[in-house]
Amino acid sequence: MMKERAEKILVMILLGVVLTSCGGNSVTKEHKITEVGKEETDELSESLEIENKCEHLLKEKANAISEKIKEISADTWEQSGNVLENYRFQFTNETIKEGKYYIEGTVIYDWTNERAPEENTVIIGMREVQRGLKTEEEKAKAEEIIDDFLVEFDANYHVTEEIPAFFIVMFENPKDLNFELYYLEKIGEEEKLYPLEQYYEENYKENYEQKIQLGKDTLEERMNYE
Q1: E strands along the chain, which residues?
Q2: What is d(CA 156, CA 18) in angstroms, rounded to the nearest whole number?
Q3: Which of 96, 91, 94, 86 is nearest to 63 (CA)?
Q4: Which of 16-20, 87-91, 124-128, 147-151 has the weakest average pLDDT?
Q5: What pLDDT, in 10s, does the model give residues 146-194?
Q6: Which of 55, 68, 130, 174 could in theory staple to 142 by disulfide, Cβ–Cβ 3.0 to 4.6 A?
C-alpha cells in the first residue's frame, strides 16, 4: 500500500503536477538550412533533427518552430532538476481550414532526472512536517514513510528516458515565419486547442509552494492512516 502511494506521488512529480495565458508565437529570425529534413540554427547549442513532411511548411519556419518548442520545454522542465537533450522534431498531417494551415508536430527528447531525492520539493515538505513533530516516536515513524518515498525517487535519479510530446502549429501565410503553437486536449470525442506556452505553464511547470504542500499533506495523511 505504501509503495503504491509513493508511486502515485512519483508519477505526479515526474509529470509536473504534476505538464498557462499567452497567444501564439511570432518568429522572424533567419536560420541556416543544412539539408532537407535535417536542419540546425547557429543560435542553438546543439543540432536539431527536423523531419518535415508538410508541403506548405517552409524549412525556415520548421526550424523556428523547433527552436521555440525547445525553449518552452526547457523553461518548463529544467527548473525542476531535469535535463532535456537530443531534441528530434517531426511535422506531419497538414490540413487547411478556413484559410489557416494546421500541422501536427511531435518533439522527442532525452529526459534525465538530475535532482537528488532529498532535494525533491515533496520531500522538503515532508521534512518540514517531521521537524514539527513532538515525540521521537512520531519522528521515527515519519522517517520510515519518507524513506519509502526516497527509495522510489532514487530509482529515477540520473535515469534517462525518451519522452515524446505533441503540439499543433497554426499559421496563415506559408511564405513568412509567423506561427502559433497549441496544445491539443482530447476528452472523449471533444477536442480543444490551448495556447501551448500557457498550457505548459499552468499544467506542467512545477509550482514550488504546491509541491511543498503536497509533501506536507502526504506525510500527515500517512501518519494518521498508520
Answers
A1: 38-39, 48-52, 82-97, 100-113, 160-171, 180-187, 190-195
A2: 16
A3: 91
A4: 16-20
A5: 999 999 999 999 999 999 999 999 999 999 999 999 999 999 989 999 9
A6: 130
